[in-house]
Amino acid sequence: MKVIKVENLHKKFGSLHVLKGINMEVEEREVVVLIGPSGSGKTTLLRCLNRLEEPTSGKVYVLGQDVTARETNINKIRQQMTMVFQLFYLFPHLTALQNVTLAPIKVAKKSKKEAEELGMELLRKVGLEEKANSYPSQLSGGQQQRVAIARALAMQPKIMLFDEPTSALDPEFTREVLDVMKKLAYEGMTMLVASHEMGFAREVASRILFLDEGVLMEEGTPKEMFAHPRTERCRAFLSKIL
Amino acid sequence: MDFRFDLFVEILPQLWKGMQMSLLLTFLGMALAIVVGLVVGIARLSKSAFLTWPTNIYVEVVRGTPLMLQILVIYYALPHLGINFGQVTSGFFALGICYGAYISEIFRAGIQSIERGQREAARSLGMTGAQAMLYIILPQAVRRILPPLTNEFVAMLKDSALVAIVALFELTTTARYISSSSGNVFTPYIGAALFYLIFTIPISRLVIVMEKKLRAGL
Known about the structure:
The complex is a heterodimer of chains A (242) and B (218).
Chain A lengths: L1 E12 L2 E12 L3 E5 L6 H8 L7 E6 L2 E2 L7 H7 E4 L11 H11 L5 H14 L15 H13 L5 E5 L7 H16 L3 E5 L3 H7 L2 E6 L2 E6 L1 H6 L4 H10 L1
Parallel strand pairs in A: 3-8, 3-9, 6-7, 7-8
Antiparallel strand pairs in A: 1-2, 1-4, 4-5, 9-10
Chain B lengths: L4 H41 L3 H15 L3 H11 L9 H26 L3 H9 L4 H31 L11 H12 L3 H30 L3
Helix pairs in contact in B: 1-2, 1-4, 1-6, 1-7, 1-8, 2-4, 3-4, 4-6, 5-6, 6-8, 7-8
């Protein structure tokens, strides 16, 4: 089942044409890794999917719903397709556990007790049970990002978007975040990940998409892509990054 | 130069009564100003011209005219439009309306100082704009707003003396009244000054402590 479908998506910021006619699909339980030079439009593409950015033209369907249609309740779609950000954006005035439970309580209308049980279970999953009552400022970057993943999981989404989740981390913390993401991938979460982590892509990606200057240049399995990139651009990019 | 300690002791209850009126005006005025400031501050950040236009005009008019004039308009002009306030009501109303404009700017700046990612993270979990504002933006903004807001409280306590023109016996007016009836100039005024300072100095110190704590990271 196709859970994301993008048709001829364009995004312009003023005169800057960031996305130039993207067509793509994501199947249920797929892990799709989006690669490409910085400024190629990876982040913008992800943000158009949950309408943090308004697409200029084109269609985006998530779980069969037209994201930009007037009658679509975007908040409902976002509950089913949550996002993890490069800079975490944990809520600094709330503890780790409160960060995780806020949306389940206020949006999904779970009871506090139910939300906290779920929250603790998710913090355990990302290995931070003992940090439940810590504030974000008391956590390392890697720990903050893991809490952010738990927060995104707490809405029990069908799809998760990751916007360069390890790019802002010190190298020593990258692995703990990737390990959590791998665990999710193996459990069958549908994931769309913008990332430069080729090890992660090689290990868990079902497909890799190469985005360059707002155009999807190439796609394939990690094996195909790494061994035989078809376009010169992709070859040049991979040789720099691998 | 005739400060008389015996007179000072004698007029203390009167001054305290005046102080109570000043505090009452300030508490009510501040409560109104915070509500007005919050609503107007958020409205001015809205994308809808329907909200930004009237609120922009309100802020510009209030900031561009003297508080004394605003008090006079609310007390003397509004009854002609059929709106009748008592003295206390028109007093705190004028203070609240005036300070609401300044405080709306404080709220606006506070809300804008919260990085955009906070709102986006909240929205990405399915929260509505109002939920994001209520649970994520405002709690963080209020911490940053608290010191300037407290400064406004001190300023209003002093400005409450201006409502004297509608014949309200707050602290300064009380002191003036005592001065003319007792023929002694310094005692009531110095007494009144002491009363103001008892409140304004500790509050100003509190602001410094809050700012230090904020700098230390919440």
